[in-house]
Amino acid sequence: MTNQPLSSAEVTHLAAGLNRVARNLWWTWNQGAQEVFLELSPRGWQTLYHNAVAVLHEVSDSELRARLQDVDLSSKVRKVITDFDAYIQDQGTWGRQHAPSLMARPVAYFSAEFGFHETLPIAAGGLGILAGDHAKSASDLGLGFVGVSLFYREGYFQQAINQDNWQTEFYSQLNPKNLPIEPVLDAKGEPLVCTVKIASAQVMFQVWRVNVGRVPVLLIDANRPENEPMYRDLTQRVYGGDSTTRIMQEMLLGIGGVRLLRALGYQPSTFHMNEGHAAFLTLELAREKMAEGKSFADAIEATKQECIFTTHTPVEAGHDRFNNDLMTFAAGKFQHQLKLSQHELMGLGRVNPEDRNEPFCMTVLALKCSRAANGVSELHGAVSRQMWQCLYPDKKVEEVPIGHVTNGIHLTGWMKGTMRAFWWRKINQGHTAGAPIPSLEREINSNEFWLRTADTNFITDEELWALRYKLRRELIEFARRRLLMQGQRLAHGDFISYDQLLNPNALTIGFARRFATYKRAPLIFQQLEKIVQLAKDRQQPVQFIFAGKAHPRDDEGKRFIQHIIHLSKHSDLKGNLVFIENYDVHVARQMVSGCDIWLNNPRRPLEASGTSGMKALCHGCLNMSIMDGWWREGYDGTNGFSIGDDTHPLDVHEQDARDSENLYKVLTEEVIPCYYNRDANGIPHHWIQKIRRAMVTLVPQFNTWRMVREYTEKYYNTAK
After folding, report:
1. Residue 217 forms part of a structural domain
2. Residue 439, domain member (yes or no)
3. Where are the beta strands (DSSP E) in 463-613?
4. pLDDT reading at 449 higher than 50
5. Which run of H or E residues covers position 325?
């Protein structure tokens, strides 16, 4: 390190490199990069949704050039740029070694939403978050991969709670200039424009590219001046509007997405449909083949060999269905290009093609036109086989061709900075000078690393407990700040002393997810008097932090939110129960890191997989869950807590009653005694042993590095 001033050329090089890093979402899972942007503008980083591009707009070119003369800062920036370039240029990736053919003919991954980071709020929930994590891990592994989705200029709704404790929604415009995205240009340097015939209109769309490490994700944007307002608004909001908007969005995604890839020269080996929203892509692929002279039957058969389908929901309402009139209106012109009658087109989306009363189902179309299909956990695979056996009447349920690949999470993307720094210190512990510097990404995704967490010489119980206290303190202080902001909307008499809310010494239980009714957010409060007694216990207190959004049209879900907020203000749980508004990726990261218990109590078997509890594991937060989704595969009796056993009553009222009893039982008989069983120094050794077991047995398994490898080996590498 030298104190000599940097030359103008050196400063220009560093400034350009930093701008390049800001335009790639790699920084969202790189601690060093985030610390640089934080240092440049601490307030801007906090108030601009941790947005690197917006921070650089906040810092003028003159300021940045001056600041880069600071030796410490320029050294950090230089290292970040070096690390970024090494990552992008790495030729020794898993993908190049194990799936080299995908470099020339990549996987095209279609999803109606991608959840990357709070900076880019274009996802509604777990489906999008899973897609974002899939793309990040495809990048880490060096897989040939391109994502396709829509650019929603108002994103998903922002949540506010009114004085009646009722969820209200508002939207804000996203400005591409302030986002880590860039326009896709044609050979003339103009925005690339493609078209799709929807209803009677030729809908034009432009494209934005999100750089996700080595992976591009392409976002279709219909907000073009040539389009009529109704078509410009197709990409206004995530799942916005009625069925007419939905079918048009899905035509834009599926048909438009294939045309976009062709315009950019992509020849994918596999088209991976993440849920049924993109299933129209199969018909566009068939249309291409018919233009080459194939019959429709042959074109569909050839299309099957290119497509795979992942279903995410065992809930009937989660499968898009469109009636005959709507299909005729929206897809009539496309139907003629396929040289099909309306009855033939409708039959492709029907379980029984001859049933003229059956609507067109996107999931049915996807299943019929794919060479392989899968659910997202072992149980969900079984439920899906039963659910869709009607499509395969000649097969037994267990023979229905729907497998499973259990979901995961992108570990470094979900780790809080405190946690990344902790694990980085541990990885470098005992590092020999001159030896190759270890990679955080590779270490943190290896079985060997997590096996070491069982070793008290690697991490002592005292270290782990100190870390858990630090993370809990950070969550509580975050919650207090957010609740103080929310307090501006509270009615007179509702004021709470925010600095005294929540107790850093109390067992902290978190629940944060979509407020779909089957997830049963208020279940734990069915035995309210008993829960109040637990919360008020001076020796062994319990407290609750909730967050989540209900779909704008889901009044029952909104009532769940209203009920919980009412309890937090007007019951004896006041001060021991809080609800954090406007749940997003940032809130989720705070909660999964700081809570001691992650609560999951869906009505089984409706939780296809669930991933929020996976995000808690690497932070030392334990799961307490119904045996549904991924937890049914992960729980072994030593690495968390099970609410009931691996069965469920068919009657939902009986199931709710039994699960409520089991939830209270496991909380009082297992969780609380284990947490508060301390030695003379206040260390809960048995609790910490469970944390170690969770890290050893669950973290290496339930991550998207494993998941993407599994997709590659099962499905991507089998493409013809």
Report:
1. yes
2. no
3. 507-512, 542-547, 577-580, 597-600
4. yes
5. helix 324-337
Residue 162 lies in a domain: no
Pair 123, 114: CB distance under 8 Å: yes
Is the domain of 601 the same as that of 572? yes
Give me the percent of the chain exceeding a pLDDT of 90: 92
Plot region of 461 (φ>0 → left; ψ -120 to 50 → alpha; else → beta)? alpha
- Note whether 565 and 516 are same-domain residues: yes
Candidates 35, 55, 32, 53; CA nearest to 44 is 55
pLDDT tens-digit map of 170-224: 999 999 999 999 999 999 999 999 999 999 999 999 999 999 999 999 999 999 9
Domain count, the chain: 3
Please name the residue that has the structure tokens 């030359």.
7
pTM to 2 decimal places: 0.96
Q: Across the strands, what pairs with 216?
A: 211
Dist. CA 360–CA 552, nearest whole Å = 25
**Predicted local distance difference test score (pLDDT) of residue 490:** 47
Q: How far apart are alpha carbons 720 and 53 in whole angstroms?
A: 41
Provide the b/e sequence for 128-147 (b: ≥16 CB within 10 Å).
bbbbbbbbbbbbbbbbbbbb
Look over the chain and give the mean of its residue pLDDT values, rounded to a whole number: 94
User: Where does 582-645 have alpha helices with state H?
Assistant: 585-594, 612-617, 631-634
Query: Does one domain contain both 634 and 611?
Result: yes
Q: Looking up tokens 């067109």, which residue turns up?
A: 360
574 assigned to some structural domain: yes
Q: Which residues of 387-406 are buried (b: 16+ CB within 10 A; e: fewer)?
A: bbbebeeeeeeeebebebbb
492 shares a domain with 389? no
What would the mean pLDDT of 613-629 be, rounded to a whole number? 97
**89, 112, 140 - which closes a domain:** 89
Rounded CA-CA distance 665/669 in Å is: 6
**What integer is the mean pLDDT of 638-665?**
95
Nearest CA to 334 out of 391, 375, 286, 384 is that of 286
Planar angle of CA 25, 26, 30, nearest 5 degrees = 125
pLDDT at 491: 47
Average pLDDT over residues 17-27: 97
* Model confidence band, residue 292 (pLDDT cutoffs 50, 70, 90): very high
Instruction: Please state, in angstroms and rounded to a whole number, the distance separating the CA atoms of residues 684 and 675.
Output: 6
Please tell me the distance from the alpha carbon of residue 617 to that of residue 423, in angstroms, as a whole number: 13
Q: Is the domain of 577 the same as that of 665?
A: yes
**Residue whose entry in the numeric block shows the structure tokens 């009505």:** 603
pLDDT for 2? 56
184 and 328 both lie in a single domain: yes
End-to-end CA distance of the chain: 54
Write the pLDDT tens digit of every residue in 303-313: 999 999 999 98
Q: Give pLDDT tens digits for 485-511.
A: 887 544 455 455 777 789 999 999 999
Of the residues 74, 89, 104, the one at which a domain ends = 89
402 and 549 belong to one structural domain: no
- Give 590-599 pLDDT, tens digit per residue: 999 999 999 9
Q: Could you write out the three-class secondary structure of 536-564? A: HCCCCCEEEEEECCCCCCCHHHHHHHHHH
- Of 213-222, 348-357, 459-468, 491-500, the one with minimum mean pLDDT is 491-500
Mean pLDDT on 35-52: 95
Q: What is the domain-level CATH number for residue 476?
A: 3.40.50.2000
Domain range holding 32?
Answer: 8-89
Q: Are residues 508 and 495 in the same domain?
A: yes
**Residue 611 to residues 519, 625, 629: CA-CA distances in angstroms?**
13, 12, 9
Reading the block at residue 189, the tokens are 């340097």
